[in-house]
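Lab notebook, bench 4. Still working through the backlog of constructs that have no structural model yet. Next entry is a single chain of 316 residues. Request: give me the structure tokens for it.
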Amino acid sequence: MKEAPKDRIGRVLRAESGRYTVQSGTLSVPCQLRGRLKKEKLGRTRNLVVGDEVRFILTGSGGAQDSEGVIEEILPRRNMISRLASGKSRKEQILMANLDLIFLVMAIREPGFAGILLDRFLVACEHRRLEAHICLNKCDLDDGHEADQLMAPYCKAGYKTYCLSALERRGLDELKSSMTDQVSFFLGPSGAGKSTILAAIQPGLELATQTVSRGSGMGRHTTTRTELHPLDFGGHVADSPGVREFGLWGVADMQLAGCFPEFRGFLGACRFPNCSHSHEPNCAVIEALRDGYIDAGRHESYLRILAEIRAGDLTF
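Model written out:
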């Protein structure tokens, strides 16, 4: 009597056109969804993403290394990072699931530093209670103390920051130490150098890289899909396609202030319980801004995002 295949638990490394690569121990297996999961119209199973943990069985008569698999169940997610999908669908796009750290990569220039985009990334991370670190790349182009000035508001807010130069290998050891034994996700605009940083940290990691467009001054898309890579020094890392817009998903206007860590110590001390921290008298956040405890640029980002949430225009 033929023995029934045994269940295995694995992590999705790659997801593309209904085909998935699942890692279980040292084994990486091409898999597809069980038919009943494909037919489900509601719930988590319709959007299986990189990082998801699944229960699957091996199929085929060959050895384990030559087998394929069938995904029987998608296990509950520990967390995830998502955004508003582009286009007119107004749907949630889940970028990755079950991660430990998000590294937000910005360039000091080429392309120029985009503080409002970084602030939107951070709001999304705070909303999901995800730990975010900030990587300022291309610091070899710093002609003075620009890097320190750019990162000062984020250090004050409590974020871990790195001043990197993938070209000169500056700061990579500290970054590598933070990534060790973690499941990490790199997110940032095109051209900021995410793939170059990862290729420098993990030799042999085959990630496409390109220079910034001279015509537009903006980064070109190099990574075309999110893919999770095992690291020789322990853990996994996913590079993501570069983004120029980032629409927030699920953040209500009254939740936004709590997504700015430097605001939290002043929330609840305002005169009005429904204070928007934009214009009201006796607002503790505005007073903290005037006293220098809150950075003016960060508060401006808050006001801009708040206005867009209230206008229902979250595609930015």
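Notes after review: The two ends are 60 Å apart (CA to CA). The first helix runs from residue 35 to 39. Flag for follow-up if needed.
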